[in-house]
Amino acid sequence: MVLKVGDVQVTQAEFESGVGQIEPQADPDKEGSAGDKDKDRRKLGDDYASVLMLSQQAVASHLDTTPEVRRQLAIDRVQILSDAEFASLMSKAQPTYEEIERYYSAHPSDFEEVRIRRLFIWKTGGGSKNTHGLSAQEARARADAILQAAAAGQDTTKLTDAFKDSDDGLFDGQPLSFPRGELPPKIEKVAFAIKEGAWSQVEETADSIILVQLVKRDRQQLGEVSSLIEKQVQGDKMQAMLNDLKKKTGIWMDQEYFGTEVAPVPGAQRRTSNPPSQLQKSARKGESDNEHETQK
Q1: Is 188 helix (H, G, I), strand (E, B) or coil?
Q2: What topology does CATH give the domain 112-219?
Q3: Which of 5, 47, 105, 216 lies 20 to 30 Å (CA to CA) from residue 117?
């Protein structure tokens, strides 16, 4: 026993377990002296003792029987039980290595990656905000020379290397690897569509012309993405279990009060003006986790 409040005795294990639910834990990266740690523990002990004292007084004053407190206690109970069941379901939804392998084999395009070179040719004049670069005509001519040489199967090294350490543009001297989803949409669309070795234009604006070369198209190894697949498969299994539970439980909602269900837009982010309540977090946890991993 390390603490006593009235007739309630608290062991060290009970204190260390209970205080974590009330006070945030200290930052382990911040080292303090033994005296500082003693002061922190004493402060936590005083706070915990006060919580126990006030809760005992509330029961003695029969506040636990008032409508508002009973309502709050009921909500807390629902939340705690909901979180416990959710944790249990998540454990059951943990995928096996075989399931992760099957998902990887069934979704080959999801784990494609490309090794590319990007060339940004800066333009000046004609509404450009650049202070250095080429005229629009010269930039166009340099870009066309690279594209035409590549299309003819010629070596473009001299044409592209001219932009190294130059104020006229920015060039990836060494190829860079990008899995799906990590490139800007316009560059990704081109990079994953062209043939290996080819150069293609991504876009042209008043400020620049962007070209990209696909050096190699590859696929990420299972070991590189197994943790991502694990979360995806677990989320899918969790969602399936939640849907099955909803059917078995028999959930009914008054459409006149709640409104009709709106079909989700694929890839759309849900937006709310206010943060979700604890009840919403519990009810939607499975859906939101799965939706987040899918969008990834």
Answers
A1: helix
A2: Chitinase A; domain 3 (3.10.50)
A3: 105
